[in-house]
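hey team, just a heads up i'm posting the complex here instead of the shared drive bc the drive is being weird again. everything in one block, sequence lines first with there labels, then the predicted structure for the whole assembly after. its two chains so it's a bit long, scroll down
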Amino acid sequence: MLTKRTTISARLERNYPAAIGVLTLILVLCFGPTCFRFASAHNLHLDQFYSGLFTLATVATGFLFAFYTFMLTTDRPFIRKAKSTIYFKRAQKYCLDAILIGACVCVLSIPYLVIQPAPSKMNISLVCVAFWVALIAWAFSTFERAARVFSAFASVSD
Amino acid sequence: MDARVSANFYRVSTPANSASGFVDQLREAAAPPSAGLRQRDIGANITVRLERFRENAEFVEGEFSRIQITNIPAQTSDDGLIPTILSDGSGLAHVAAFVYHPQTRVLLLQRNMLSVTPNRLTLYLCGADPSRMLAFSPVMTEDAIARFQAGHARSFTVKFAGIDNLTGLDDQDTAAAQGARMIGEAYHGADVTITVSVGRRRGAMLRGFVERDVERLATAPGVETLEAKLIGEANPIDLLSENMRVAMELALPEHDPIANYEIRVNFLRDQLQQAMQTLRHRYG
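-- predicted structure starts here --
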């Protein structure tokens, strides 16, 4: 029973950011037009929406990179010993994944910042927006995962 | 040579399913006539051998040596240090004499951290067979045992050392966050407090079980501290350090290993004989 539970939690940890991304894609494709119509009807500032997400992605990526560098270069005895374990190697992979996806989000956000699409029906523009929002959801989930795993390592005192 | 000889008392226990006891294992180790055939590498580049073995009417006695063949210390001279050149195939012998009393299963082993410790001794004697591994429990001092037996143990606190090799806890099926917490706990070791809760009538009966469990804990691998708190006593008994030991300055000949051994083993035998009344009373 315990083995089954740990296997489930290990699989969940590995796959939940991608699952959240796929779920977000479906949600945006289903409810995106309604949301955009609502924003347009109430004069909501969509430019701030694109700008805000872009800023968040850049800050999170920069923060993770600093965190990653600290964990690799620190001379703390526990981290030194933990470096050879698969848990630390997996945490490093999660961190690198988050940095790479965050960087992709930053670069891909630039056209959205310029165009600021607001599709009110199903078309290619909505698909593009849905992919972008899904990518952002995936990036934030990977960021949350990397930060949580690295916090678990950082919280162990020497 | 350092003329101060010290020795610790240990109670020897064999595993329940083991066919051979300590003396049988010593006899086996002593069987090869050549000293070279008696030496064994017990791991981590440590070579041990039984140098001498003798069975008297009451005691079994002898001497172990740990053979140092690498990182040989240099000799000193007025001009500084000179390398020590040993002949091919030989090494430095760090010796530890012992005297064992089979009836009480008490061993008095010369204390020499460079030589044979109880852990090295059991690795040497059991060979590659873990079922033959012996346990060497330190024998508590009379004072500690009197306090322990007079009072009622309220609780025991055992501190297990953390583990160095964290990769031993690697498991592909464990999440990284969970694994990080797990290796964090393993790194720090564990403090375990065992509370003894018995009524007055059953207390005396259970004391034997408690003492047996304390002996087992004292020799468990990785135990750093083992303390017993007694009802009515402010200070806990440190069960790992309040152990019977003897020490004395002896006039040891420097160029005669056999005479040197005889003086040390005679000293150990005398000390064991002096403690025999207490040990017989305790262990029968």
